[in-house]
Amino acid sequence: MGPQLPPASPPDPNRPPITLKEIDAEQWKAIKSYDEKLKKTPKDVTSLSYRAEALFLVGEHDRALADAASVIRLLPEDPRPYLNRAFMWQLRGQLTKAV
Question: Is 53 in contact with 84 (CB distance < 8 Å)?
Fold first, then answer.
């Protein structure tokens, strides 16, 4: 069996809410970390998937969609990457591309 995404973790109920500015800074920090991981292992579907989500959150939609497409190419039988990409298209208001 090929690469697989790990199961999602439940949110920590004890973590206090953070501001949008903090979220943005955390996402860019995560993107940088995923960039480094992907330099070493370009087909790391976990890093690609998480980087796609982080890129989308900071407004880098085209880059996020490119990463999402890469995950789909690497995991064509897994429905989750297709759902993630469809959600990105939906949030961009491009519903015809979401289906």
Answer: yes
